[in-house]
Amino acid sequence: MSFYKHHIFVCTNRREAGNSRGCCAEKNADALRDYMKSRVKELGLEKVRVNNSGCLDCCDLGPCMVIYPEGIWYSCKTKEDVDEVINEHLLKNEAVKRLEI
Questions:
Q1: Is 1 inside a domain boundary?
Q2: Cβ contact 24:63 at 8 Å
Q3: Do β-strands 6-11 and 72-75 pair in parallel, antiparallel, or remain unpaired?
Q4: What parts of the chain have a pLDDT lower than 50?
Q5: How many CB atoms neighbour CB 17 within 10 A?
Q6: Are the C-beta atoms of 21 and 59 separated by less than 8 Å?
Q7: Which three-class secondary structure state does DSSP give residue 61?
């Protein structure tokens, strides 16, 4: 059994300015990761870990994250997207199809 019920890796990779693929960092990934971490803590969700990740190679779809052990990938562009992932995936164990990559 995994130590965490959900382990979330949020891409915060930063590429050099002008890179044609862009990067999650320039799409507000750090702030969205911080928001997710604070909401998980506020809600008292145990055994849920939100971590930084290097490049997840979905730069054009970012900011992106992957949640294990399910291995479901999401593109969350707003706090509302993050809230939906928390409410549906983390609390109800239901994937958020509209945000899946």
A1: no
A2: yes
A3: unpaired
A4: none
A5: 7
A6: yes
A7: helix
| Calpha distance 51→67 (Å, rounded) | 10
- Please state, as a whole number, how many other Cβ atoms lie within 10 Å of the Cβ of residue 68: 13
Question: Domain tally for the chain?
Answer: 1
Question: Within a domain: residue 66?
Answer: yes
Among 35, 38, 36, 10, smallest CA distance to 23 is for 10
| pLDDT of 1 | 59
Encoding tokens for residue 37?
């971490």
- The CATH number assigned to the domain holding 93 equals 3.40.30.10
Cis peptide before 69 (omega within 30 of 0): yes
Decide: helix, strand or coil at residue 22.
coil
- What phi and psi values does residue 15 have, to the nearest 5 degrees? -105, 165
The SS3 call for residue 74 is strand
> What is the pTM for the complete model shown?
0.93
